[in-house]
């Protein structure tokens, strides 16, 4: 996927829609402490009090406006992305004290762009397993797990080491787990999706390139769903539908 573009005095209310990441004291960390973990929002594992205040020694002013996403929440409405000021404050609290404040707006732009791309992939997956077009999937919660490689990504790395011509050898720069509400025949269920984020070679124009590998986390049910989608995509190409669609456009 290609990126299409370049990245108040009172604290914001508790946020359930900011950039996800895995804190060092999360349940996925050996340093986990339940008393410390209580300060994170369980819907996205972010700080519950992402401030819009200007940081100490911050050289440039950053916007505090938050961009709405197209991603529906399980509780109603849509998720919102963090403002550049919130993103900067979160990075500082995570220990990235050398963050260039002038680059934060571009970082937010890339973050939002990739999340929208990930959701579009999830919607495409869910479309195949939801007969009721009026019932749309919803994102219940999510978390970043950048330090934990998925089994598929690890296998790709292994294959790439054996023969670099078979697979990309650069590991994903991030991983997210998104928990999606699916409604099928009136019954609601929760499906965990796994997203690997890869960087590709930069375009000649200098535009960055990203690849997202989005799929349901591997379970017996998800294995069948993966086979169904793979088989459907193969049939779509073999039948010439992709060529006809390209000609129509």
From TrEMBL:
It catalyses: holo-[cytochrome c] = apo-[cytochrome c] + heme b. Pfam families: Cyto_heme_lyase (PF01265). InterPro entries: Holocyt_c/c1_synthase. GO terms for molecular function: holocytochrome-c synthase activity; metal ion binding. This is Holocytochrome c-type synthase. GO terms for cellular component: mitochondrial inner membrane; mitochondrial intermembrane space. It comes from the Eukaryota.
